[in-house]
Design brief:
Layout lengths: L3 H4 L6 H32 L1 H12 E6 L6 E2 L5 E13 L7 H12 L3 H10 L4 E7 L1 H10 L4 E10 L7 H4 L1 E2 L5 E3 H5 L1 H5 L3 E7 L5 E3 L13 E4 L3 H17 L4 E7 L6 E7 L12 H4 L2 H4 L9 H10 L9 E2 L4 E4 L2 E4 L6 E2 L1 H7 L2 H11 L1 H10 L24 H8 L8 H12 L3 E3 L4 E5 L5 E4 L4 E4 L3 H11 L20 E11 L4 E14 L6 E8 L7 H4 L1 H14 L16 H5 L11 H8 L5 E3 L8 H10 L3 E5 L3 E6 L5 E3 L3 E7 L3
Parallel strand pairs: 2-10, 25-28
Antiparallel strand pairs: 1-8, 2-3, 3-4, 3-5, 6-7, 8-9, 10-18, 11-12, 11-23, 13-16, 14-15, 17-20, 18-19, 21-22, 22-23, 24-27, 26-28
Length: 667
Amino acid sequence: MRDFKSARAPEPNGKWLALRVKLLACFFVTLLLAAFGRAVFLQVVERDKLRGLAQDQYVRQIEIPARRGDIFDRRGTPFAQSVEVDSIWVDPSLLPDVKAASRALAKALKLDVEDVQARLTRARRFAWVKRQVTPREVEAVKALGLPGFGFTKEPKRFYPQKELGAHVVGMVGLDGHGLEGLELAFEDELSGQNSRMSGFRDAKGRKLLVTGVPDTLERQGASVTLTIDRHLQYVSEKALSRAVEESKAVAGMAIVLDPKTGEILAIANHPRFNPNTPGNEARSSIRNRAALDSFEPGSTMKSFVVAAALEHKAIKPDDTFFCENGSWVVGKHTIHDTHPYGWLTPQKVLQLSSNICAAKIAQQLGRERLVKAYHDFGFGERTGLALPGEARGSIPFPKAEVSLATQSFGQGMTATAVQMAAAWGALANDGVLMRPYLVSKVVDPDGVVLLENKPIEVRQVVSAPTARKVVSMLESVVAKEGTAPKAAMEDYRVAGKTGTAQKADPVARGYSDKRLASFVGMLPAENPRAVILVIVDEPKTDVYGGLVAAPAFKEIATAAMAHLAVPPSREVPLPSAALPVAAAQPLAKAEPVRPVVEEAVTENAEPGSVRVPDVVGQAGREAVSKLLSSALEPQLLGSGRVVSQSPAAGSLVEKGARVTLELATRQ
């Protein structure tokens, strides 16, 4: 039988097999080329991108905050400094019980429980617990033994003088940026440049610095030196606070200015605030009213009206003006004086502060020249103190007769306290207006001076003879017949002017029964070294500047003359009990005159007590030796000679009591 199976011809599949092999080979070659192309794309084209993504997993940019620059007074006493303190943070994911941890943290750090719990619940890997804490608070958190906590150093602003000069210096926020005062005005100079460095992040997300901390000087801000004198600032704030509290007023301002240079030696405000604890202070108490607020100054402006009228020869020093016996009708309005006066010379107008006669002098001067005189004295334009928000005041043109009259005694116009002090400085400086300034210089950590202010003459407002004549007239204001005998001093000639201005009522669009009492003066009148302005806002006991503000002026002036070592204007009179023959004795044998109180009290001192000796004016070492010999403990503030002491000389205290001495180096 024939085998059909073996007799069948073989199928032609060899070519298909070869084709399949080739196709398979092409497929694998394509895959290999695709893999190679992808590798080239990742290694060459996407190299930088992938490297960055990898570094993001373990490399972090660490920002090192700059140390904020310091602020000093004119003698180098620090008003603001920066210190490194701890801030506490936590990784909430590592806490076993967030609710229990929140309660423990709130108790240890005196925080609100709900606020802490909300922040820890809301955050995933990082949350601030409390920033800028004390070492005691750090130890309290460590004692809890909870996981996930970290402590990092942050610069904190510290104000060693506390309330002293706080309105000028200002303050910073938790982020270290200026919020008020010079801290805000010189933010760029004080803040410095933050440093950024690369570091690694470990498995727990902690940042590790591997290259070391940069030099402190490289990330430190510039220092600012002020014209403020710490001692005069202290005296001004103390006197102003006493005046405001005794008169039951709502606020007050005081300025001490050097008329020859324009330097502001003190600028005080009340109420005061502590920039170390700004959260505890009312917002209104933080505002620097003396530099930023404008107000109607009142009768202190009469001095400039008389000066301008004399300069333009609109009046003569011996002219007389009829003051209408206290009441004068101008249009639909009536102008009043506090007392009825008849005929007065310009000097008497200033001495008795007659509104009516000041208005008549303004009429003689004329509208245009009055407005120009005010502008020449610096009113209506910012002084350029470098403080943000400084007011410029306003001098509207007095179209109506009554407006001309009211502007002559400082109503219907506004000015700032700094403008007032600077304008009075022009009268004290032979008619030359100096630009007032607060900042002496700004120096970077390398010693490069970034800013330096020097005395700048703005303009000659009135001639020197006119200025001296007006100053001579103003000396009569502090005489017994004047409006401010409480500002008179035994050792120095004082020239000044009182002001009692009605405060505008913005709601009723008129004037209220509230007053602004002020006194501004210069001394010594023959060669003024200081212009001192004191303003008391809404006094309740008395409303007149001669009664409310003048005593504070005298207190500040007494300390200022001693601090600046200004020689007296006249010889100090001998006590009435002194014998005439004592003056005829040779000087070498003459006994020094001692206060009667000191000798009498020493004899009557009780056992275990001692009288405080008088050490004012003595060198620090001499004062310390005298106090120690009297069994008292001295405490020194400053350096140089003693300018004040507390308790006062003659006070009866227990042995071993502490006596605080204010020292200052006299210029």
